[in-house]
Specification:
five-stranded parallel sheet; alpha/beta; about 190 residues; about 15% strand; globular
Length: about 190
Amino acid sequence: MRKILLISGKRKCGKDFISERLQSRLSDRAIIVRISEPIKKEWARKLKLDINAMLSDGPYKEQYRRDMIIWSDEVRSQDYGFFCRAAMKEAPVESVDYVIVSDIRRRNDIRWFYDTYGHEMIQTLRLTSTLETRKARGWQFTAGVDDVPSECDLDDSTFDHVLENNAEDEVGDRLIDQLLATLKLN
């Protein structure tokens, strides 16, 4: 593993879209790690929910999001790196050059990666999108979700790179070209 790219951004700003496009371009040299995956898996197990629906981008998980956030915050209060560690442990990170962490949401997530892997291994990327773009992608403000640390903790943070993602699929390749050049991952 040569680099870990930590991607953050508001809901519906395209974190998964950009992560998947980037991974596709880097092919077998990269994997995507999702911190939310161990959270959703454990939540689904505890409540006997459909794990595949919880892991998808569909509406199923939205009905559980607020309670899942509260529960995961309780776990993090005991061990701030619990879910980062679980996500990295599940992934075959030793077999790739690049790890793309597609859902960084808290300062402590970034802290855990710096503490665990060192600053030289880490690059941070903040994706931004206009409210209009996010709404067009299906975002609606939800109290208890969009106004809590899981969505706002990184709002005033500094990132290595900031990339505006307001374009749709046909421009995605240009965005990935720009990202690869900026990150020097090719």
